TrEMBL record:
In the N-terminal section; belongs to the enoyl-CoA hydratase/isomerase family. Belongs to the enoyl-CoA hydratase/isomerase family. Its main location: other. It comes from Comamonas aquatica DA1877. It catalyses: a (3S)-3-hydroxyacyl-CoA + NAD(+) = a 3-oxoacyl-CoA + NADH + H(+). InterPro entries: 3-OHacyl-CoA_DH_NAD-bd, 3HC_DH_C, 6-PGluconate_DH-like_C_sf, ClpP/crotonase-like_dom_sf, Enoyl-CoA_hyd/isom_CS, Enoyl-CoA_hydra/iso, NAD(P)-bd_dom_sf. One of its GO terms (biological process) is fatty acid beta-oxidation. This is 3-hydroxyacyl-CoA dehydrogenase. The keyword DNA repair does not apply. Keywords: Fatty acid metabolism, Isomerase, Lipid degradation, Lipid metabolism, Lyase, Multifunctional enzyme, NAD, Oxidoreductase, Peroxisome. It is found in: Peroxisome. Residues 482-575, 612-696 form the 3-hydroxyacyl-CoA dehydrogenase C-terminal domain. Pathway: Lipid metabolism; fatty acid beta-oxidation. Residues 301-477 form the 3-hydroxyacyl-CoA dehydrogenase NAD binding domain. The lineage of its organism: Bacteria, Pseudomonadati, Pseudomonadota, Betaproteobacteria, Burkholderiales.
Length: 705
C-alpha cells in the first residue's frame, strides 16, 4: 500500500513491513488538530493492515515534534485530544518506533514516550518544557517519563524545562539507541527492521513498574520543599510534583486522570496566559520593518571602546559568541584594568569548575587590547561604552569616523543620551545606532536596539543579527530620554518615592513589589546598583527639572551621608560586614520622617495591594505613552523589555499584558483617581483613554502588522 495522502500534514508510506508515518507541519511540527488526527488515523491504518508489522514515526524538517500547538491553548478543544492519540500509539498492537532527529519537546516527547522504542540522531533535543509556559506535561508525560527514566530524574526534567541532548537523553534512559548521521528515516527503518528481525516485543511504557516507591516519594518530598522555595509564586511546578506522586501511588489510568485534572487547572490559570504571551512576544520583537526592508551587513570583527563595567561585559558576550574583539581604552593603565575585568569573568568560571585554563586561553586568544583608535581600521562593528557624557562620546565618535572603514557599524551603549546628537558628531549618521546592553552584559538577555533618525535600515537589521548571534533578546526602541526601559523605570521609581513620602516605608514597598513576583524591590535595586549613580543623574538634571513637579529628597539625604548601598555597607538598608541581604535601618526611617515633616505630609497606611496599584499604574501609563509616541513599536515590546531586562515576573506576561488581564478600564479609573492628587504626574496616556473608549486592549495593537 502506498500513500494516497501526500497533501496531508501526516503522510504514511509502506516501506516493506514498516509503515513510515511522517509529520509535515512546518515550522516545528507542532501537534495541531490535523497532526493529532493524522497520527491517530495512521495507528488505525496500521492496525487494520496485516501487511504492516511496525510503525516508524518521524518528523520532516528541523524538528521531530516541538509539542502541542501553543496557539490552540485557550481556544475550544478539538478532538482527538493529545492524550487520546498517545494512548492509541501506546496501545498499538503493531510495534511503534519514534526516530528523533531534532526537537522532541513537550507533547512531542510524550508521543515518543508512548512509542515502544526510541532512536535518536545527534541533533535530537528531548525535554518537557511545559513548565516554561505555566503548564505541565498533559498527555501522559508525567506518568510515562517517571516510568522510563526514574521518578527523580523525570521530575527534575519537568521542573527545569531543560532540553537534553541526544547523548544526555540516552544516558538518562529516554532513548534506546543513538545513531550517527542525518537521514532519520533511513536510520529509523534500519533500527525498526532490526527490532522486527530480533522479534522485539511491543513494549508499553504504562506497564513499567516503579519499584522503589518509598524512596521515590522521599525524593519527591525533598524536591517539593526545594521547589516551594524557588518557584516564587509559580503555580505549575508544585502541580508537576503532585503528578509525579500520582505516578508513584496510583495505577496508570488513575494517574493519567489526575494529570488531566491538574493540566486543566494550569491551562486555565492566568500564569499560562502570561507565559505564553511572553513566549510569542519574545519571538515577535525581532519582526521589525527594517529587517523586512534590508539585509544585514556582514560582520566578523568587533571592537569595544571602554573596558569598564559595560565594556568588559559586552566584550565577554562577543568573545563567548566566537568573535574576535579589539578593546580600546584611554591609556595603558585603563586597558590593563579593562583586560583584568574581562579575565575576572573567566577566572570566576574556572573557580566554579565551568571552564579550564586552556579554555580561557583559547577565548582570550581572540581578545586584543589597545590604546590606539588606529587599530580599528578593519573592524566591522564598534560598540562604544565610555563614560555617560555627551561630549566624551562625541569625541569618541569623531575618532571612529576618522579611522573606521566605510560601512562599519558604529554603536553606542548610552543609557540616556541623545543618539541623534552622537550620530551628528560623525559624517556618517546612517551608520550610527544605539545598542543598549544591560548589566552584567554577558548575562542579561535584553538588548535595546535604539534607532536614531538617520540610521539606514541595513544597520538596524545588522544590530538585530548581532543580537541573535549574542543570544540576546532584541527590542527596537526609538530615541528619547531613557528609551523604553529606563524611561518607564524613572516614572514608576518616582511613584515608589511618592508612596514612601506619603506613608509606606521603603521596606514595605520592596516587600509589596517582591510579593508581586519581582526578585527585588526598587530600593534594594538602588542599593545594589549604587545610589551615587542616580544621585549624579538627579544633580545633572536639577536645572531642567519642572519646578512644579513633586520631588522627593529622601534618596539625596541618604547619598549626602555617603550611603551608596551595598558597596558602602549602607544605603536604604544596612549591610553589616559585607552582608548581601540588607536589614532595615531606623536612621533611614528617621530621614523619611523628617522629609515628610518638612513637607507637612501626614503619613498614611498603604496595603501591599494599594502600593502595587500605584506602582503598576505608573508603569502601564508610561508604557502606553511610549507606545503612543512610537518609542516602542508595540505593547509587546514593552513587555519583553521588562521581562528580559528589569526582573518583571515573566508569568505575568509583562506590564502591558498584565494591564490587559486586569482590564484597561480599571487601570484608567485608578490613574484618574490618582490624578486628582497630582495632575502633573498622573496625566493619563491618550492611548490608554482611546483604547478604553473603543473597548479595546493593548493586545489589539500587537496584532497589527
Ligand atoms: N506551537 C506553535 N508554534 C510554535 C511552537 C509550538 N509548540 N513552537 C515553536 N513555534 C513557532 C514559533 O512561534 C515560531 O513562529 P514564528 O516563526 O511565526 O515566529 C516558529 O515556530 C519557530 O520557532 P523558534 O523561532 O522558537 O525556532 P527555534 O528553531 O529557535 O526553536 C524550538 C525551536 C526549540 C522548538 C522552540 O520553538 C521551542 O522551544 N518551542 C516550544 C516548545 C514547547 O514549549 N513545547 C511544549 C508545548 S506545550 C505541550 O506540549 C503541552 C502538552 O504537554 C500537552
Ligand atoms: P565605567 O565607568 O565602568 O567604564 C567606562 C570606561 O570608559 C572606563 O574604563 C574609562 O576608562 C573608559 N573611557 C572613558 N573615556 C574613554 C575614551 N575616550 N576612550 C576609551 N575609553 C574611555 O562605566 P560603565 O558603567 O561601563 O558605563 C559605560 C556606558 O554604558 C555608559 O554610557 C553607561 O551609561 C552605559 N550603561 C551602563 C550600565 C550600567 O549598569 N553600568 C547599563 C547600560 C548602559
Amino acid at each position: 500500500m502506498s500513500s494516497d495522502n501526500t497533501a496531508s500534514v501526516v503522510q504514511t508510506r509502506l516501506d516493506g513491513e514498516v509503515l513510515v508515518v511522517s509529520i509535515h507541519n512546518p515550522p516545528v511540527n507542532a501537534l495541531g488538530q490535523a497532526v493529532r488526527a493524522g497520527l491517530l488515523a495512521a495507528v488505525e491504518q496500521a492496525a487494520a493492515d496485516a501487511a504492516v508489522k511496525a510503525l516508524l514515526i518521524v518528523g520532516e524538517g528541523k524538528a521531530f515534534i516541538a509539542g502541542a500547538d501553543i496557539r490552540e491553548f485557550g481556544k475550544p478543544a478539538m478532538p482527538p485530544s493529545l492524550p487520546e492519540v498517545c494512548n492509541a500509539i501506546e496501545a498499538s498492537p503493531k510495534l511503534v518506533v519514534a526516530a528523533i532527529h531534532g526537537p522532541a519537546l513537550g507533547g512531542g516527547l510524550e508521543v515518543a514516550l508512548s512509542a515502544h522504542y526510541r532512536l535518536a540522531l545527534p541533533k535530537a533535543l528531548l525535554g518537557l518544557p511545559e513548565v516554561n509556559l505555566g503548564l505541565l506535561p498533559g498527555a501522559g508525560g508525567t506518568q510515562r517519563a517517571p516510568r522510563v527514566m526514574g521518578v527523580k530524574a523525570a521530575t527534575e526534567l519537568m521542573l527545569s524545562g531543560k532540553h537534553l541532548s541526544a547523548k544526555a537523553a540516552a544516558a538518562a534512559g529516554l532513548v534506546d539507541q543513538l545513531v550517527d548521521g542525518d537521514d532519520v528515516t533511513a536510520a529509523g527503518l534500519a533500527y525498526t527492521r532490526g527490532l522486527l528481525a530480533a522479534g522485539a516485543p511491543v513494549r508499553r511504557t504504562r506497564d513499567i513498574e516503579i519499584t522503589d516507591k518509598v524512596g521515590a516519594l522521599a525524593e519527591l518530598e525533598a524536591l517539593a520543599i526545594d521547589t516551594a522555595k524557588k518557584a516564587r509564586g509559580l503555580f505549575s511546578p508544585l502541580k508537576i510534583i503532585e503528578c509525579a506522586k500520582a505516578a508513584v501511588n496510583l495505577p496508570f489510568e488513575q494517574g493519567l486522570a489526575h494529570e488531566r485534572a491538574l493540566f486543566v487547572q494550569c491551562l486555565e490559570s492566568p500564569q499560562r496566559q502570561g507565559l505564553i504571551h511572553a513566549f510569542f512576544a519574545e519571538r515577535e520583537t525581532a519582526k521589525i520593518p527594517e529587517a523586512k526592508a534590508a539585509a544585514p551587513r556582514a560582520f566578523a570583527k568587533l571592537a569595544i571602546i571602554g573596558g569598564g563595567t559595560m565594556g568588559a561585559g559586552i566584550t565577554v558576550a562577543a568573545l563567548d559568541a566566537g568573535y574576535p574583539v579589539i578593546m580600546v581604552e584611554r591609556d595603558a593603565e585603563s586597558i590593563a584594568r579593562g583586560q583584568a575585568n574581562v579575565e575576572k569573568v573567566y577566572n570566576a568560571l574556572i573557580a566554579k569548575g565551568r571552564l579550564t585554563e586552556e579554555g580561557k586561553a583559547a577565548i582570550m586568544a581572540r581578545y586584543t587590547p589597545s590604546t590606539s583608535y588606529d587599530d580599528l581600521q578593519d573592524v566591522d562593528l564598534v560598540i562604544e561604552a565610555v563614560f555617560e557624557d555627551l561630549e566624551v562620546k562625541k569625541a569618541v565618535f569623531k575618532e571612529l569616523d576618522r579611522v573606521c572603514k566605510p560601512g562599519a557599524v558604529l554603536a553606542t551603549n548610552t543609557s540616556y543620551l541623545d543618539i541623534d546628537a552622537i550620530a551628528a558628531a560623525t559624517a556618517r549618521p546612517q551608520d550610527v545606532i544605539g545598542l543598549h546592553f544591560f548589566s552584567p552584559a554577558n548575562i542579561m538577555k535584553l538588548l535595546e536596539i535604539v534607532v536614531p533618525a538617520k540610521v539606514s535600515a541595513d544597520v538596524v537589521a545588522t544590530a538585530f543579527e548581532l543580537a541573535k548571534k549574542l543570544k540576546k533578546v532584541p527590542v527596537r526602541a526609538g530615541v528619547c530620554d531613557g528609551f523604553i526601559g529606563n524611561r518607564i523605570l524613572a516614572v514608576y521609581k518616582q511613584a515608589a518615592d511618592y508612596i514612601m513620602e506619603d506613608g509606606a516605608s521603603p521596606y514595605e514597598i520592596d516587600a509589596a513589589v517582591r510579593g508581586f513576583g519581582y526578585p527585588m524591590g526598587p530600593f534594594q535595586v538602588t542599593d545594589l546598583a549604587g545610589g551615587d549613580i542616580g544621585w549624579a543623574t538627579r544633580k545633572r538634571r536639577a536645572a531642567t527639572r519642572d519646578p512644579k513637579a513633586r520631588y522627593v529628597e529622601v534618596a539625596d539625604r541618604i547619598c549626602e551621608n555617603g550611603w551608596f548601598g551595598q558597596k558602602t555597607g549602607r544605603g536604604f538598608y544596612l549591610y553589616p560586614q559585607g552582608a548581601r541581604v540588607g536589614q532595615p535601618d531606623p536612621e533611614v526611617l528617621a530621614i523619611v520622617d523628617a522629609e515628610r515633616a518638612k513637607k507637612g505630609v501626614t503619613p498614611r497606611q498603604f496595603t501591599p495591594e494599594e502600593i502595587m496599584r500605584r506602582y503598576m499604574a505608573a508603569m502601564v501609563n508610561e508604557g502606553a505613552k511610549v507606545v503612543e509616541e512610537g518609542i516602542a513599536l508595540r505593547p509587546l515590546d514593552v513587555d519583553v523589555t521588562f521581562i528580559s531586562g528589569y526582573g518583571f515576573p515573566r508569568w505575568r506576561g509583562g506590564p502591558m499584558k498584565w494591564a490587559d488581564m486586569q482590564g484597561l478600564d480599571k487601570i484608567l479609573a485608578d490613574i484618574q483617581t490618582f490624578e486628582q492628587e497630582d495632575p502633573l504626574f498622573w496625566k493619563p496616556a491618550a492611548l490608554l483613554k482611546k483604547l478604553v473608549a473603543e473597548g479595546k486592549n493593548f493586545d489589539s495593537l500587537n496584532q497589527a502588522d
